[in-house]
Amino acid sequence: MAAPPEPVLAAPLVDPMLPRVGRVRARRRDAPLVFTLEIEPAEGSLPPFAPGQFNMLTVFGVGEVPISLSGDPARPGRLIHTVRAVGPVSTALSRLDRGDPVGLRGPFGTGWPVEQAAGSDVVVVAGGLGLAPLRPALYQLLAPRRRYGRIALLYGTRSPADILFAREIDAWRRRKDIEVHVTVDHATGDWPHQVGVVTSLISRARFDPARTTALVCGPEVMMRFAIGTLQGAGVASTQIYLSLERNMKCAIGLCGHCQMGAAFICRDGPVFRHDRVRDMLALREI
Amino acid sequence: METHGLDRILREHPFFAGLEEDFCQLVCGCARNVRFDAGQHLFREGEPASEFFLIRQGRVALEIRAPGRGAITFQTVGEGEIVGVSWLIPPYRWTYDAKALEVVRAIGINATCLRDKSESDHDLGYELMKRFVPVLVQRLQATRLQILDVYGSPA
After folding, report:
1. What's the whole-model pTM score?
2. B155: pLDDT strictly greater than 50
3. Which residues of A are less than 8 Å from B141 in CB distance?
4. Which structural domain range is residue A168 located in?
5. B154 vs A200: CB contact, 8 Å cut-off?
6. I need a surface site. Which of A36, A54, A267, B123 has the fewest CB within 10 A?
7. ipTM exceeds 0.85, yes or no
8. Alpha-carbon distances, residue A38 vs A3, A75, A96 (angstroms)
9. CATH for B120
10. What's the confidence (pLDDT) of residue B7?
11. How many domains does chain B have?
């Protein structure tokens, strides 16, 4: 009698709720209460990520928070996360030292439409910490630069001391193939650059509104005003993308904490096309 | 006053784009070319608002001075924009400082002259209001955002 066939074993499923362990490789302060962590896996390699996606980071014994990826997707071996220390977990993250363990789940969520934007002008509007999830998109836009028309980065933040990635922004300013405008809400007399809200930069940027993709990230109020100004300049709602933030817990669309209407921000977002969430943004109840 | 060159410059400035010929001549009669060096004030808080400016080149910082904090810039204004709206509203005094951040070339419009012409010709006054009100609304919205301090810590 022939031996029964070997059972076919399914590939082991990775439990998306199970954190893997990473270690802090470096920590850098970017602005008051804002710092960037570079994390490498304790073993194995890391999955690739798309610009705009996020990871769930765990400080063991404290808790877990969603944090956007802010590094270069072309260099996935190290995870770069830019964090503002505002709650218990993010504050605990800010106190980690080189070699300390961090729990990692992800990457999760939708990304910026960098591929779809090929051939069009791209306007990136960032407010405050909103520059962090847009930085991976900028890396991708600038890498095969000839695939895009004009690219403009319009960045607004609170004060000169709060500017993220200042050296990198200076490097982008020196390039001739990206238009960079930075503004702050308030400054003292020794600040030589622009002062005013980020929406005031939109009229200064050169782009063809009929063939422009806009990527917008920042505080929701700022995004509402920026999107209104972009639409006033002629950019269609279907060409505007924004990243939303809600209280994400499971990150896989199960728990409902981040539900906004029929959408789960963690699974269906955080990046949405504006016309698909426009009505929900106007609802005060959510 | 030679207004031929001013007429062209005025028409080319975004703020007065599309202005009717008759109105343009009236505004030109109140206008002059001005230049400010870096660091020079266009006007200071409390002074009579006797002239406003259409910026042609350079940047201007709008500042408020606060005790113990020095000058705080709340807005910068550049090419194609205007500096000064207090001339529209009594008591016609500036409520902030305007300082050139670099060499600034502008058209200065004599406010008393333009107010008088607007009183005599309400069509001109209405045309001016249609151009100034959007600027005021934009600045009001910007001020709202600044007051909200949206980039501050959410904690």
Report:
1. 0.88
2. no
3. 197, 199, 225
4. 121-243
5. no
6. B123
7. no
8. 52, 12, 11
9. 2.60.120.10
10. 87
11. 1
